[in-house]
Amino acid sequence: MTSSGPQQRRGDTRQRIQDVALELFAEQGYEKTSLREIAERLGVTKAALYYHFKTKEEILISIFDDVTRPIDELITWAGGQPRTLETKQEVLRRYSEAMAAGASLYRFMQENQATMRDLSIGRTVKERLFALVELLRTEDGPKTDQVRCVSALFTLHAGMMFLQHVEGDPEETRLAALEVATELITQAHHQE
Prior knowledge:
mainly alpha, Arc Repressor Mutant, subunit A, 0% strand
C-alpha cells in the first residue's frame, strides 16, 4: 500500500460527510439537522465524525470553500487578463460551469439565506459577486451597457436558481442561460 492510501481514504470520508450533511440540510433544514443524525446516516460514530468536523458550521463552510474554490481561481485569473470581449465570455463560461458543479450547494444557499448570513458565508458570496461584476463591467460605458454586464452575470444565476423547476434537461437550461448572458456581454462590448 502506498503512503497516500490512508490519506486518500480520509479524503473520501470527508467528502462523504459533506455529501450526507448537505442532503440532510436540504431535506430538513440546517438548524434541525444534528451531528448525531449526520453520523447515523453515514453509519459512523459521532466520535468518528468529530475526527473530521467539530460542528455543523465547519461542515458547511468546508463544502462552501471546496465548491467555490474554482470561482476564486477564476477571479484571480480574470484579474490578470485584458478586459477583452473574449476574456469576459470566458469568465461567463467558467462561472456557469462552476455553478453547475456546485448546484446542490447553491440551491441550499438560495433556500437558506438567513443561515448563510448568520455564518458569514453570505458576505463572501457578495464579495465574489462584486468582484465578478467589476471584471465584466464596461469601464466608462453608458449605464445601459453597465446594466447589460451585470445582467449577464445574473442571467446565469436565473438559469441556475429560478429555472431549475422548468421541464427539461438542466444542462440545456444552463447552456441557454449562458447563451443569453454571452449575448448581453457581447452587445455591451460592441457598444463601447
